[in-house]
Amino acid sequence: xxGKQMRQQCLSVISIILATLLQYTxxxxxNCIPVINYAVFYVNNxxxxxxxxxxxxxxxxxxPALIRFNVCGYLHKKCKVDSxxxxxxxxxxxxxxxxxxxxxxxGYKFNLIDKEEPGKGIILTYPKGEPITDVTYGSIIxxxxxxxxxxxxxxxxxxxxxxxxxxxxxxxxxxxxADISEFWEFLEDYGWIFALAGIAVGGFICFFGLRMLNTTLxxxxxxxxxFASLYFLFAxxxxxxSSDILKWFLVVICAGLGVGAGVLCxxxxxxxxxxxxxxxxxxxxxxxxxxxxxxxxxxxxxxxxWVLWVVVGAIMGYLTVLFRDLVLIFATSALxxxxxxxxxxxxxxGFPNEFTIAQKLQVGELESIPSTVYVYFIVxxxxxxxxxxxxxxxxxxxxxxxxxxxxxxxQP
Length: 412
Known about the structure:
Layout: H1 2-30, E1 35-36, E2 39-40, E3 53-56, H2 58-61, E4 65-69, E5 85-89, E6 96-98, E7 109-112, E8 121-126, E9 140-146, E10 155-161, E11 165-171, E12 178-179, H3 181-189, H4 191-208, H5 213-236, H6 244-267, H7 269-289, H8 301-323, H9 325-348, H10 357-363, H11 371-410
Parallel strand pairs: 9-11
Antiparallel strand pairs: 1-2, 2-12, 3-4, 4-5, 5-6, 7-8, 8-9, 10-11
């Protein structure tokens, strides 16, 4: 009965996680909430539900004319068909031209004004619409500068018209609501500390994960709470100009949370086993995503990684709880082997961040996956196989000794 109840609880947790993630990806994909370089922008708030934005282009065209546009939503004044920007001569609906695609944000693109500083704002590019007689134009480019003194709509609107039509404006919606880039920079700045810890911890769990189960459960509980809390605290608290003192203070807080989670996983073995399975899901996701799925070109390239991790992690967590020893040996040896090799890669280079690789490929920061990544994967597999064989033999030896002791005890 307890086993059946535990399986039902695990399946319920998996269902909740999947439903939540699918809801997030739907919102991110269709409601203009781009995630660029791990900075999150609620651009959907720029949409003006009362009236369209306007710029007077009469001087450019030598006759009365307006460009009406909106962001992440169609114009209220339709010009023949739905669009995001249209040119109106003499402000009449009869004499107008659609300047963007009428598809539901198909072909649109978000970029940062400054790749190094997401806090400066965001650029939205709409693809060109229908041709206009005697008028030359390319894409509609809306550059939204972050200004926290403004509300969520566009203000101080100006424009330039050369090859493309560039519209400049200020809004608080162009300020990232969360910026994870500082988290990655911190890990890179002090990566040698995490790399040395990764080699030590990876070696331990690769060869002694099952035998020293309580320690293993504590390690995975600690790592889960530590990195998850550090990730979110850096996203919402740490800014570009934040001091190292603040960052290390947050590290200490997260370490405390990690200790608490580690103790909890030791006391609740089921929670600890599920946690190990989730990390095993991360490993499977990295193997599938880094060389293969990261090449998929999407509006939200990093979402694929997170969706896959949640799905595979939930499945692996369930399997680890259900089958325990065999899956536990596989998970700890694989994670330990990957952890050792991934940590060494910090010192030798050639292994891009698996969390951001899709974004870098899409924006051109990486032309292709470095060949060294495949070498690292092969070495990690060999180390993991060694750990798996060693742990399996140890388990059989301990099972035999326990069985022998029981036989001796039964003799008169």
